[in-house]
Amino acid sequence: MTRLFVAAGGGGDAVAAAMLRGALYGADDQAVILTYAWDRLLVDPLPGPRGVGDFTGLEPVTRSVRSVPAGARPVSPAGSTLPRLAAELPHTLALLDPHHGVEGVTRQLEELVDHLSPRSVDVLDVGGDILAKGDEPGLRSPLADALTLAACCQVNAPVRLLVAGPGLDGEIPSDELRPLLGPLVHTFTAGDTDAIADTLTWHPSEATAMLAATARGIRGTCEIRDAGLAVPLTDEGPTVHEVDLDAALNRNALARALLTTATLDEAEAHSREICGFSEIDYERAKAARREKLPPVTLDADRVLARLDAFAHEARSRGVTHTTFRRLTEALDLSGAQRGELRSLLISAHPERYAGPLWRIA
Questions:
Q1: Could you give the angle at which helices 300-316 and 338-348 cross, rounded to 10 degrees?
Q2: Global pTM?
């Protein structure tokens, strides 16, 4: 039998879905994970999500759906983590292409459900920003989740909405999310993280890294993203809750506005109107700024000295942990240097590695 998982925001949601599959259903059933190729600028220098035309080597599943095998490649200069994920995870990764708006996402979902006749359809969002109203001050990336939510509410099949790690994306505090959450479905354990342990050593997702860290018992305050958001690591971190799908749609003004969209440009326009911004505009501006910066060489002595200064300042803010993505940007390095930075830091200070996070000593 096949289980279908929909990674609501792409990226780390797909990695978390792989972990959840094993935790909920064991190893007997196969899994197809439908996910966006939207890896942000640390991996992909091009703003926005990638579509079918941005890859070579995709394989047809249905008329509108393509799978991403290990041999697929993004068309330069684009980047994507999906081929490497496909090589590491024992699941089929299917590309969710949002360029035809909610109409296109709905069509892809319906075709996949008809083709697979899955035993279950689970939509997973790590953090809970899929429950955003649209006016929250901390909201940063509502578009992908809203597209997914709007489409799932139109699919003629039973769909279960799951939120893992409430508040771990740093966008909506867990105190605000708690009244919106339904029954507890699962609490991740350290053993559950074994399924994605190797992936967490290189994948840039911060929310899923913290989800795994809390499952491993790490507690404190983690600083994330270029903005330095402080995220509490608590006993709520490794939990997974079911949420009523219709209630989520009724709450999410952006998702409701997107219901009849046929292009990504339309969806962006609604995001600007309802949320006051488009996250793709933010990526465009950030990419333009990066183009003007000179290349940076990773000098070990300079990096370690700056790391000590960063740690001193972070401790004064009450921070106990951070992510390698945060460190990469805080130390003014490029996304391509993230892996090299990680190796350097773990080699220099192995006692500070609290996998997959970095402990502020």
A1: 80
A2: 0.97
